[in-house]
Amino acid sequence: MLSRRDLFKVAGVGAATLLVAPGFVGQSFAAKKSLDDALKEKLGITQKDLQASELIKVKAPTIAESGANVPVEVSAKIPAQQVEALYIFIDKNPNPYVAQVDISPANGEVYFATRVKMGKTSPVRAVIKMKDGSYLSAFKEVKVTVGGCG
Amino acid sequence: MLIPVLSLTLSLAFGQALWLSDFDKAVDVAKREGKNLMIYFSSDHCPYCWQMENYVLVDPDVERYISDKFIVVSVDVDDMPESLEEKFNVFGTPYIVFYDPKRGKVISELFGSREADDFIAILKQICKKSNLRRC
Questions:
Q1: Which strands, in side-by-side order, build the sheet including A110-116?
Q2: What's A112's domain CATH number?
Q3: Residue A150 within a domain
Q4: Any CB–CB contact under 8 A between B12 and chain A?
Q5: What CATH architecture is B11-129?
Q6: In this prediction, does ipTM exceed 0.90?
């Protein structure tokens, strides 16, 4: 049976862990990444490898009232069987990588909609990895307004 | 007693800003450390507070500057002592009051969210307006 003394020891270790943890959490959040860092980490490429494409459409508000919940819709007039995956990046977020969607012919079309969090005004970028190894990209600049609640 | 001391030690060890919730205690700490107070009034239901907390106040440059120059008091306006509400006339969130604890005077106030770069520029201006020597 757990004695009163043992209980306090366990509680003490738990409290110490909780106090130490915020320091580590803070540090991991504090590591900012550039778009190139994120592209390299996720796809092994840089912005130079991205080919601008008018076949991709990124739909998002030009002005977002708050960055907490920004709707983003990506579609592409490219046959799904030619596409391997679709990625979304927010260029100026502390961690630009947002999502990866694997595309198969069963999808029928290249389409994905979601809601993203944005730290500040930034391009919202869609990157499509083609089966031939090339990368197509398009973006929409979304302004995140500053403001307050009254 | 042990937990606040340990918390303070860890905050300093990690180079993080010291965040407190008790205004009077924060005034004492700020006086002792020769820093000004940054009183951050926020609300759980305000998306602009969310923006500040998740992207601006945790920005490494902002955090470093705040940690160096200010003691932060975080106040939830939905659970705030009346004395603070009256003293600082809190009318919305995020609302940030910069306070000189030695003179007992407000240095500056800021309403609404800002982007990290703009916020650092504001902090530098406030530092220059205050009685601190190095900004």
A1: A56-59, A70-76, A110-116
A2: 2.60.40.2470
A3: no
A4: no
A5: 3-Layer(aba) Sandwich (3.40)
A6: no
Percentage of chain B beyond pLDDT 90 is 64
Residue A18 distance to chain B (closest CA, Å): 10
- Option in A22, A30, A66 nearest B63 (CB): A30
If 0-12 CB within 10 Å is exposed, 13-18 middle and 19+ buried, where does residue B15 land? middle
Spatial distance between the Cα atoms of A42 and A34, rounded to a whole number of angstroms: 12
Q: Which residue of A has its CA nearest to B43?
A: A149
Residues A20, A61: one domain?
A: no
Residues A115 and A68 in one domain: yes
Same structural domain for residues A27 and A39?
no
Residues A149, B56, B124: CA angle, nearest 5 degrees: 100
Chain B, 13 to 42: residues with Cβ < 8 Å from chain A are 13-14, 16
Using 50 as the pLDDT threshold, list the residues of chain A that sit under it. 1-2, 4-5, 7-8, 10-28
Q: Tell me, yes or no, if B63 comes closer than 8 A to chain A by beta carbon.
A: yes
Which residue reads 């031939």 in tokens? Answer: A132
Hey, are the CB atoms on B115 and A121 less than 8 Å from each other? yes
Q: Which residues span the domain enclosing A138?
A: 35-144
